[in-house]
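Worked example 3 (structure in, sequence out).
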């Protein structure tokens, strides 16, 4: 196998692992998350 194939599969595997890890982080916090929105007037 040439080096470009190893690079492709290495990057594909890394992206797969990262997508699984980031997905778990958002699910472990629960379905509801508080959001705060601050709105300022033009004068501050």
């Amino acid at each position: 196998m040439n080096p470009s194939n190893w690079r492709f599969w290495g990057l594909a595997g890394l992206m797969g692992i990262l997508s699984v890890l980031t997905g778990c982080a958002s699910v472990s916090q629960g379905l509801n998350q508080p959001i705060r929105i601050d709105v300022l007037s033009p004068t501050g």
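Notes: The mean pLDDT is 78. The two ends are 62 Å apart (CA to CA).
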